[in-house]
Design goal:
By secondary structure, the chain is of the alpha+beta class. 36% of the residues lie in helices and 16% in strands. The chain is built from six helices and five strands.
């Protein structure tokens, strides 16, 4: 059985790389999702993650692997965060590193799709033969489909 049989998440709105990070964040919050696909025209460009946007609110010294280990000394940092939230309106999706994920096609076998989902922390894009995004495959959707198919 292949992904053709799996009801994908509804075809999501594909963000343009020039979409502001604030608009992307609001869309994620409004839709209760942590990731949104990004397309350049009709071509898949990657996935923007809510964690990337959260990182934009933190000082660069805290984002670096060898940087600050905690920010407790700051206390209530809302005054430090507020200007960064406003900057999200001027920053673009293409300014953050998009998740470069493997793409699936509609003929991908279910076991292969399960393996790729297991290895990645995000839903995976399913592209049609024309290269256009057909929808996103999440762990939850795949597991629900498998349970239905096995009568469990």
């Amino acid at each position: 059985m292949t992904l053709r049989a799996v009801p994908l998440l509804p075809e999501p709105t594909c963000l343009h790389p020039d979409t502001s990070l604030l608009d992307a964040l609001n869309l994620m919050l409004d839709n209760g999702v942590n990731h949104l696909p990004v397309c350049n025209g009709s071509e898949w460009a990657g996935l923007v993650d809510i964690n990337d946007i959260l990182g934009e609110l933190l000082p660069a010294s805290a984002r670096d692997e060898r940087g600050l280990k905690d920010l407790r000394f700051v206390g209530d940092g809302i005054a430090l965060i507020a200007p960064h939230i406003k900057e999200l309106a001027t920053r673009r999706v293409h300014d953050v590193e998009l998740l470069d994920l493997p793409t699936l096609d509609e003929d991908t076998p279910l076991l292969e799709a399960a393996l790729l989902l297991y290895r990645h922390d995000a839903p995976l894009p399913v592209l049609g033969a024309d290269g256009r995004l057909r929808g996103m495959l999440s762990r939850r959707v795949l597991l629900a489909h498998l349970l239905t198919q096995t009568g469990s």
